[in-house]
Each structure stands twice: as C-alpha cells, then as structure tokens.
Amino acid sequence: MKNILLLTVLLTTLAFGSIRIDTTYTTAGAVAQKIGGDFVHVTVLGSPKYDPHFITPKPSLIAKLRRADLLIINGGGLELGWLPPLLRAANNAKIQNGAKGFLDMSHFVHMINVPSSVSRAFGDVHAQGNPHYSTDPYVILPMAKAIANKLAQIDSSHALEYQQNLEKFTKEWRAYLKKLDAKMLTCKDKKVVQYHQLFNYFLRRYNYKIYGTIEPLPGIAPSSKHTIALINVMKNNSVKKILQDVYHERKTAKFIAEKTGAKVLIIPHDLGADGSKTLQEFYNKIANRICQ
User: Global pTM?
Assistant: First the structure.
C-alpha cells in the first residue's frame, strides 16, 4: 500500500508541472504552456507592463532561475540589460547559455532591421536586428515547434504528448491566422508613426508604411527639433495614426496628435501589456486598434 501511495504521488507530480520553465516574457510563456500542457509549470520573469529592455533584477527572480529546468529567452539582445547577472547569481548549470535547458527563440525567427554597424551614435541598437518579433502572429508557429522539440529533449518520456500538443496548437493557430488576415484586409489607412520600433514585424506583415518614430533614435528621448520635424512629415503625408506603447511617456504623442489631427492608439507589445489574457486576445487587440 505504501509503495502504491508513493507511486501515485510521483505520477501526480510528473503529470502536473514536473518540468519548470522560466520565460523572460509572456508571449513565449503562453506558447510554452500550450505545448507543455499539464507536464510543465511556466513562470514568466518579466512583467509586460514595463519596458522589456529593463526588467528590475529582483532577488526573487534568482530563486526562480535556480529551480528552472528550461529557460526560454526572447534573444536578439533584448535581455542583455537585466538577465546575465541574474543567471550568474542563480548558478544553475542546466539553463546557462549553450546548456540543454537554454532556448533562444530568436534563432528560429528571421530578424529584420539588422544594422550595418553598431554604434552608440545610432542609439540603443541591437546587433542581431530588431528583437520585437513577437508582435508578428506568424512567428508563434516556429516558436511552438522549437519549444516542442526542446521539451522532447529534456523530457523524452512525454515527447509524444508534446508532439500531439504541437499538432493541435498548430491546427488551431493556422485557423486563427486566416481570420486575422481577413480582418487586416479590411484596414484601409496603412500609414503610421510609432514611439519605438516595437511593431515593425506586425506592420511589415500587413504592409503598413512607417513614417517615423517619436524617438529620434532607439532608446533616445524625443527632442523638440525631432518632434517638429515628425509633425511636418505627418502633415505632408496625411499620417493620422500614432502607435503608442504602454510604458513610454504619452505627453509627446498627445502633443503631436493635437498638431496633426492624428489618433493616439495604445498598442500592447506583449501578451498582458494591456490586459490581454490569451494569445488570440493579444493579437486581436493589436489588429483592432491599428485598424481604427
């Protein structure tokens, strides 16, 4: 009886979150949960309410990393400002860069806006390209496949279940993409400016034209000179949409809107940034607001 009880406890532990996954951001966390199902426990390290470049490196995050079996990062240099010291402090060999339990999602995505050279004169640029690829709903499928393959390596006893979850999710996501694509075909005004280059992947996917950014350079606060120049560009090209993220200051966008008659549209950059609870809700919010 004692052995049966121990076996029951063991099987329950395996079935409900035996693999501890840490993800740096929420979109990857949601995909990991879809693929891992009941066999994984997912923890997201960074809050979608804040700038993804500068997550506060709290001691509690070290404890989470110390227990993780798999770490999934966005990559592309997005975590460079906060993750490396946490990884060193956690001292978890399983999830160090290059280890079996480390997964860089940027390796499975075609990065855009790759700079020809990297210099502080060009602002806070990323050598590998624009790291905000998760705003493109089509990257979810290669992310899901990469996570399924990695989980099968770490937990081969449930490789079949991970593959089945992947197949089910892929079918559902492809059906969702057809609906989203149909929605985006109804959008007529495809001229925008944005605060930071957060939405380039989504805008590129759906053939929007970007006329500039409120930041004069990535990571550099807007100046009066640049703001006036941007207002003139918007007036000359009849740009009536300003894409504002949830974490940058909104005063400048409001000022530009007053001078140009444009709308300021608050767009989430990650799942949960503006209250979304599912992947579909996240991309629906982007689509619905950009299509206003």
Answer: 0.90
